[in-house]
UniProtKB/TrEMBL annotation:
It comes from Massilia solisilvae. NCBIfam families: hemK_fam, RF_mod_PrmC. GO terms for biological process: methylation. S-adenosyl-L-methionine binds at G114, T115, G116, S117, G118, D137, W164, N179. The gene is prmC. This is Release factor glutamine methyltransferase. Residues 93-187 form the Methyltransferase small domain.
């Protein structure tokens, strides 16, 4: 029970959550930094602060992700706004950013397909201001979040509402990167943990988990410059299938890369010849 008069210091150990989550919610509810929690540890909460903190704690106990509760998530060293219109950026996806940056030539062109919060596109544009970065998404609400994140970090990103390649015309890019929906319909993970609160259309293709990946691999050749790279994040058990799809479409140097947990998380290849 959180009540007016409780001190900040006492609450840090009394709240019924993980210590890190306790600290994050206290900082958010009270508008304090981590240092502020220490320097003001003897300060007592007002009735309004106690009520607000109690509401946040109940939301977390119900299972709502911390990132949605506070509206922020760190990714690639940047602070991103998030809400329930977009996936929560995860550290594993930083591998996709690193691979894209390694393959993006000076003044190169990059396309981020299914941008969500804009984490991939904004991170690339922020790191490489020489690059021409385009990000697309089918969701207008997601694009609103992505634009806000680009503006917050001074990242030059062109945003486009498109159902995959439908509004791209004949544009070509040196790198196409995507973290598409790759969870199969009915997968039990969709009803667990944070995934219960994240946008379903960004998680599952409502098929076998490879439907969106097939669309991207099948169409990307028409939008890649000669020797351009296609890089795709996928599920923990999909690497071999994604490599086979890439090889069937004529990609060279097809390979997979492992994330911090040692799981093959990103697969890609170089498209040496443009499709007709």
């Amino acid at each position: 029970m959180i009540t007016a008069g409780d001190t900040i210091g006492a609450l840090q150990s009394a709240l019924p959550l993980d210590p890190l989550e306790n600290r994050i919610l206290l900082c958010h509810a009270l508008g304090l930094s981590r240092v502020g929690l220490v320097t003001q540890s003897d300060r007592a909460l007002t009735a309004e602060e106690a009520a607000q903190l109690a509401t946040l704690v109940e939301r977390r106990k119900f299972g709502e992700p911390i990132a949605y509760i506070v509206g922020r998530r760190e990714f690639y060293g940047l602070d991103f706004e998030v809400n329930d219109s977009v996936l929560i950026p995860r550290p594993d996806t930083e591998l996709l950013v690193e691979l894209a940056l390694e393959r993006l030539p000076q003044q190169g062109r990059l396309l981020d397909m299914g941008t969500g919060s804009g984490a991939i596109a904004v991170s690339v544009a922020h790191t490489r201001p020489d690059a021409a970065v385009t990000a697309l998404d089918y969701s207008g609400a997601a694009l609103d979040v992505a634009r806000a994140n680009a503006n917050a970090h001074g990242a030059a990103v062109r945003f486009l509402r498109s159902d995959w390649f439908s509004n791209l015309d004949a544009e070509t890019f040196d790198v196409i990167a995507s973290n598409p929906p790759y969870i199969a319909s009915g997968d039990e993970h969709l009803s667990r943990g944070d995934l219960r609160f994240e946008p379903n259309m960004a998680l599952t293709d409502r098929a076998d988990g490879l439907a969106a990946l097939r669309i991207i691999i099948g169409g990307a050749g028409r939008h890649l410059a000669p020797n351009g790279w296609l890089l795709l994040e996928h599920g923990y058990d999909q690497a071999a299938q994604v490599r086979a799809l890439l090889e069937a479409q004529g990609y060279a140097d097809v390979q997979s890369w492992r994330d911090l947990a040692g799981i093959e998380r990103v697969s890609g290849g170089r498209f040496a010849t443009r499709n007709a």
